[in-house]
Amino acid sequence: MKDILAELEHRRTEARLGGGQKRIDAQHEKGKLTARERIELLLDEDSFEEYDMFVAHRCTDFGMEKQRPYGDGVVTGWGTINGRIVYVFSQDFTVLGGSVSATHAQKICKIMDMAVQNGAPVIGINDSGGARIQEGVDSLAGYGEVFERNVMASGVVPQISLIMGPCAGGAVYSPAMTDFIFMVKDSSYMFVTGPDVVKTVTNEVVTAEELGGATTHTRKSSVADGAFENDVEAIAEVRRLVDFLPLNNREKPPVRPFFDEPGRIEDSLDTLVPENANTPYDMKELILKVADEGDFYEIQENFAKNIITGFIRLEGQTVGVVANQPMVLAGCLDIDSSRKAARFVRFCDCFEIPLLTFVDVPGFLPGTGQEYAGVIKHGAKLLYAYAEATVPKVTVITRKAYGGAYVVMSSKHLRGDVNYAWPTSEIAVMGAKGATEIIHRGDLGDAEKTAAHTKSYEDRFANPFVAAERGFIDEVIQPRSTRRRVSRAFAALRGKKLQTPWKKHDNIPL
Ligand code: HXC
């Protein structure tokens, strides 16, 4: 028995060494942690239960039968994050470059199946040279099996991808179908075709970092939701995110102890909106002042900054926030901001996370650039997402809510539950100047008359009261009491149940 146990330990030690000390050192030299070190940091201490440690590939081509390392380039299992279960796979670049063989893919599939059956998130740590070249189509089949599971798990359990090394070719499509992608600056990249192919086909010269690094994907393409300085920071932030999320679509988001007064009054909010309607102000200030303990987890912070998306807690409960940002493009909606917010709204709706919307929107961004690129379809995504969402929806209009954008931004007309407005709100088809230029075009040459028309339009519509008269606004509230009003609104909506007609699935404009 002693020998048998010693043999087990011997095999375990060998498996834990992955591709060997030399390759581990090389991994460290690149500023990267190993697959196991990443898991250790991600999960609560001693909570990791590993599966399939001794799995080895079955390939016999190209001399592969001579190197059959334990684990086959991916470490899989489950553990806890602050006591809550998550399933994990972490690709081991030290073993055959973390490349994906049929058995490597089977290990990932096993974890995904268990996560769905047991209702727990899947966190995938990607660091791989892609399809195991020696295995050919077996490897592609493995990817296909993973893709199918990504889709089946979508909306059932949260799926989070950490990109911590290469992720190229078709391999990018597994993370692409997960809910959140986080990258590490300077040590990770994602692209469908690499710089060499790009050079051959299009003659463009571009580095891997420029083509698919963390900065590119968080600022230009919006493929990634966040970029971090190193592995440690990225993993710590994923732990923070998981704390906001429910484990699956049948559970409510977690309720955390909170140390903030739900009725906290913020006098400074009474002067947040400047006197001049065209002067910007920072909408993040409102979010931070409303959130429990000022804690805000922002998603896609560096992309389409004219809209802000992220998670806060109110009375310890997770709430998804969508807010126009007047500091950028005057807070107008455009293609990028509509896509960004629509995806966020749909994530929240999948996982029963209530939605809080702060509105200060002058309309959609005009121009051929937007129209040619399909702002009609992309803008419709956000409208669609809000309209279909059945989670509690509370909206606060702080200033402008003009035209179609007023309707889109979680208005009463899209099954908004509680719609508040600050007294500084202007709810109208458009601003007074634009309206005057259209309805009093004949008087445009007469400055005095035009000013009078503008003033009369402002007096009539540059306020929340016309909408309030019609019940489109439930209450005009004091800015300073926003946290209290919004917290109470969500508390009253905790039992909300709303059914949509049966359908196979919807057909959101894509
Ligand atoms: C088998 C691989 C591998 C792969 C790397 N290795 N990629 N083995 N299949 N895809 C092995 C290397 O042989 C090497 O083994 C070890 O991993 C480390 O690789 P290095 O090249 O030394 O590392 P580095 O210099 O850091 O370069 C990393 C890399 C490069 C840029 C990822 O390895 C590379 O270009 N690999 C091939 C990438 C690729 O073309 N993949 C297929 C893409 S198509 P030793 O024993 O020397 O340590 C694809 C399709 C998916 O993925 C489709 C899904 C539908």
TrEMBL record:
One function term, GO molecular function aspect: acetyl-CoA carboxylase activity
Domain CoA carboxyltransferase C-terminal positions: 264-504
Superkingdom field: Bacteria
GO CC annotations, alphabetized: acetyl-CoA carboxylase complex
Pfam families: Carboxyl_trans
GO biological process: carbon fixation
Domain called CoA carboxyltransferase N-terminal: residue spans: 1-257
Keywords, comma-separated and alphabetical: Ligase
Keyword Ligase: yes
SUPFAM superfamilies tied to this protein: ClpP/crotonase
Gene3D superfamilies in the cross-refs: 2-enoyl-CoA Hydratase, Chain A, domain 1 (3.90.226.10)
Family: Belongs to the AccD/PCCB family.
Name under which the protein is recorded: Propionyl-CoA carboxylase beta chain
